[in-house]
Every structure is written in C-alpha cells, then in structure tokens.
Automatic annotation (TrEMBL):
Residues annotated to bind Mn(2+) 1: 135, 170, 448
Residues reported in the UniProt entry to bind Mn(2+) 2: 102, 135, 198
Active site: 104, 169
Residues involved in substrate binding: 198, 231, 333, 346, 420, 448
Protein name: Peptidase M20 dimerisation domain-containing protein
Higher taxonomy: Eukaryota, Metazoa, Spiralia, Gnathifera, Rotifera
Name of a matching Pfam family: M20_dimer
Positions bearing the site annotation: Important for catalytic activity: 231
Cofactor: how and how many bound: Binds 2 manganese ions per subunit.
GO biological-process terms attached to the record: proteolysis
Length: 476
C-alpha cells in the first residue's frame, strides 16, 4: 500500500475515534497532577500509574525510574514522582525515536478566575477546556493514540520508540537530569532522534516547528523579621518589616520597559547578527492578535520583530508572587513575620546559570546593605534550566516539515519558543542527536493561565502530523 493510501486510512481511523480521544483526555485532566502543590503529590503518582496502564495496554514495556526525593523550603522531604521509561519496538533495522513529555500540570482553581472547573474537561465550541489539556497531557496522549491507531489498522510501526515521561517539568524537572545522565549508555544508547511536543504555535492557524527555547532561573528571596506575625497598630513604625524589605528588593529588579536592572545581566547575551535579524522579518505573526490573546491594551514593543526578539532571544524577568503575605479578602492588620518573594529570569544564548545566580545574589546584597535592616535575608536559586538551540535544517526537521505539509497543506514556520523545557539540552547532550520541538497546540491555548484549552481540531490534526512524522522520520 502506498503511504498516501495508508495516510487516508489513518486519518479516517483517527477521525472516527474523536469521541474516544476526548474521553481519554478527559480522564487524564480529571487527575489534578499539580507538581507544585506538595499535598497533591499522590495525584501526581496516580497520573503516573494511569499513564503506565494505558501504555502497557498498547504493549509498550514500561519501567518506572525512581529519581529520589525533593527537599521543600521548610526542610521536609517528599518523594519525587517516578519517571516513566517506555520501550516500543526493538528492531535493529528501524530508527529509534525518543519521545519526551510531562504529566504534571500547573496549579489551577476556580477562584483563580476559571469559567469552568479546571479538572473537568469541558467542551465548548470545538475547544476542550481544562488544566493540562494543551500542557502537556493532550500532546502526550496524542502520541499514544497514534500508536494505538497503527495497531488497530494492523500497520507495522515505522520506528522504535522510547518514551521518557516525567511529572516534575513544571517544577524544573527535578531529578531528571541525573537520571538521563545515568541512562546515557543504556536506555538512551542507539537512539536516532528526540522529539518533544510541549509548546505552541505562534498563531492560531499556521503550524510551526521550533528550534529554540529560553531557559529559566527561578529564585526565592526569603526575608524573616520576627518570631511571629505582629499587630501593625502595636508594632508598625517601630520594627523593620519583612515585607517592606522584600518589596524594596523586588522593585529594583526590572523597569517599566521590561529591562532587567541587575548589573551585568546582559553581558553574556549573544549579539544580534544581521542574518538573525532577517529571520524575524519572514515569520508570520499578528501583533494585534498577540495583544488580544494576552488581554492587554498595549505591549511594551510595538513591531513584530521586536516582540519576537523579546520573547525568544532576550532575557526577561517576571515577579511571580510572595508566599506568606496576606492575600485574603478583607483587611487583616498584620505584619507578616516571614515572606518569600518569587521571581524568575528567562535566559537566552549565551547566559550561564552560575553567572546569573552570582549576579542576583550580589544585587540583593547591595540593595539590602543600603537599607540598614537587621532582617535575615537569603536568596536561593530554586531551579534552573538551560536555554537550547538546534539546527532547523536537520533531516529530522525536514521530515516533520513534510508531515506538516501532508496534513495542513502548508510549510510550517521555523520559530523559537519563549518558554522553557528545562531538560531539552540534556537530551541533546546525552544522546548527541537532534532534538525537534513539534508543537500541536495553538497560540491562544492559554497554558498556565485561566481557561487553558486544546482545540479539537488541533488535537485531531496534531495526531495526524505525528502519525505521518513517524513514517517520514523512518525514511531520513
Ligand atoms: C513550554 C512548557 N510547556 C512549559 O510550560 N514550561 C515551563 C517550565 C517551567 C520551569 N519552571 C517552571 N516551569 C515554563 O516555561 O514555565
Ligand atoms: Zn507548562
Ligand atoms: Zn509543558
């Protein structure tokens, strides 16, 4: 049978089973596998088991790798979720593809402003709302659905597959780097390609392939003033308050133009070369749609090239929150005794995590010295992940481009991603092979945000691209 004929059968099979795929995603979204919430760790374990059972039902050999414990800020220890290592096929004559994805999700609560229950997949107008629908349960399940479709069609699978599915990605992939290093000469030996579907198109219509990611350095600034919370009427004006110190420090990190104010932070940023500047001009990107997706009236930069460069090739600093601060309704007149400020810096070529860590420590120390405060202040790099860049002309990218054209009838844009997938560089280094980012979600999916969703059309077309990608990559 020609590959065109098989693709027709594959696409029909997938289309005919749309309902089953939505139900499967719904079952996965119903497990609130939030890696950042320590009390939800059993749910993360449940998600690992759910996925393991699904994989085993497809004949994938699954091994669970123990990656140790996580040490929490209060000193307590928590077991890290096992990493799923799956092996599907072991034919020496076939190429071997590693598929990486994650099963954990960002926190979500209705009170954050969701229109629906975050852990109940809700279909409305062709969109599937739910936490993890696009990031990253939908794409992970898509890979598995495709394997099932090949089986049901009695079609030999074109490649061997090795799965690495973790459940701490949203917390910096704790434990995974050491595991991959230990697997270099065993599980990861003899692989040919690595593919990751855990990112988003640049727009809503046009598919893309991605060859770059920003890295991330996530910091905690810990300030402790007293042994207990205090009455602001009795003690206000007489003591150095933890929150006042913390806000003073946090307000010195970034200016109103998004420029990071930490001395030396831009020193290692790669210079923009004329060839690189040209790339941005050719990319399809709608600035107005971007503002609308963000729900803002105005972005800092106005032109397409500048916005893309500030997403992909310049660092940014975001203030995320303050643990321990009063954030309830009403007017509690408390002086919090202990607060932890959280911020992250997205890093780009050629910034080094160790340098960033030192510069941040120095900056906080300098600001605090000027404040004459007796409070205990410490800075901690909670987690760090490197930036990553690959060669978009590699044959694996050519294979994925062909697959995209077969399904979407259009050449994908070659883009980068402003977010981070901390383990990507480790895969490249430990396998010595090309890594491809194959996004199937749309730019307005709202990963990490309220009302995260995955379009049914992206789910269905994403599986078709994956199905054809396996054939194309088997040939290169
Ligand atoms: C792009 C990917 N789907 C993602 O959302 N990555 C996270 C990774 C992370 C690192 N620390 C916390 N989360 C991100 O870019 O924020
Ligand atoms: Zn995410
Ligand atoms: Zn993700």
């Amino acid at each position: 049978m020609s590959s065109e004929d098989f693709n027709k059968r594959l696409f029909k099979y997938l289309d005919d089973h749309q309902k089953d795929y939505i139900q499967r995603l719904s079952d996965a979204v119903a497990i609130p596998s939030v890696s950042a919430w320590p009390d939800h760790r059993p749910e993360v374990f449940r998600m690992v088991q759910w996925t393991k059972s699904f994989m085993e039902s497809l004949g994938i050999a699954v091994e669970l790798a123990d990656v140790g414990e996580q040490k929490l800020a209060d000193g307590t220890k928590l077991k890290l979720p096992d990493v799923i290592l799956g092996t599907y096929g072991n034919d020496k004559l076939k190429k071997t593809v590693v598929i990486y994805g994650h099963l954990d999700v960002q926190p979500a609560q209705v009170s954050d402003g969701w229109d629906t229950e975050p852990f109940v997949l809700t279909e409305k107008n062709g969109k599937l709302y739910g936490r993890g629908s696009t990031d990253d349960k939908g794409p992970v399940i898509s890979w598995l659905n495709v394997i099932e479709a090949y089986q049901k069609l009695n079609e030999p699978f074109p490649v061997n597959v090795k799965f690495v599915l973790e459940s701490m990605e949203e917390y910096g992939s704790e434990g995974l780097e050491d595991l991959l290093k230990s697997l270099k000469n065993t599980f990861l030996s003899g692989v040919d390609y690595v593919v990751i579907s855990d990112s988003y198109w640049l727009g809503k219509e046009k598919p893309c392939l991605q060859y770059g990611l920003r890295g991330i350095c996530y910091f905690f600034i810990d300030v402790e003033s007293s042994t207990k919370d205090l009455h602001s009427g009795c003690f206000g004006g007489t003591i150095h308050e933890a929150m006042t110190d913390l806000i003073a420090v946090m307000s010195t990190l970034v200016d109103d133009q998004g420029r990071i104010l930490i001395d030396g932070i831009y020193d290692e940023v790669a210079q923009l070369l004329p060839e690189e500047a040209e790339i941005y001009k050719r990319i399809t990107f709608d600035v107005k749609a971007y503002s609308a997706e963000a729900g803002v009236d105005k972005t800092i930069q106005q032109d397409k090239e500048q916005i893309l460069m500030h997403r992909w090739r310049y660092p940014s600093l975001t203030l995320h929150g303050i643990q321990g601060a009063f954030d309830g309704v009403g007017c509690k007149t408390v002086i919090p005794r202990h607060v932890i400020g959280k911020f992250s810096i997205r890093i780009v070529p050629n910034m080094k995590i160790a340098t960033i860590e030192k510069l941040v420590e120095k900056h906080v120390k300098n600001v605090m010295e000027k404040r004459n405060s007796p409070n205990k202040v410490s800075v901690k790099l909670e987690h760090g992940g490197d930036y990553w860049l690959a060669d978009p002309n590699h044959p694996q990218y050519v294979a994925a481009r062909r697959a995209t054209v077969v399904v979407h009838g259009i050449e994908p844009d070659l883009t980068r991603e402003g977010g981070s997938i901390p383990i990507t560089l480790t895969f490249q280094e430990q396998t010595g092979k090309n890594v491809l980012l194959l996004p199937i979600g749309a730019s307005d999916d709202g990963a990490h945000s309220q009302n995260e969703k995955f379009d049914v059309s992206n789910y269905m077309n994403g599986m078709k691209v994956m199905g054809v990608y396996f054939q194309e990559v088997a040939r290169v």
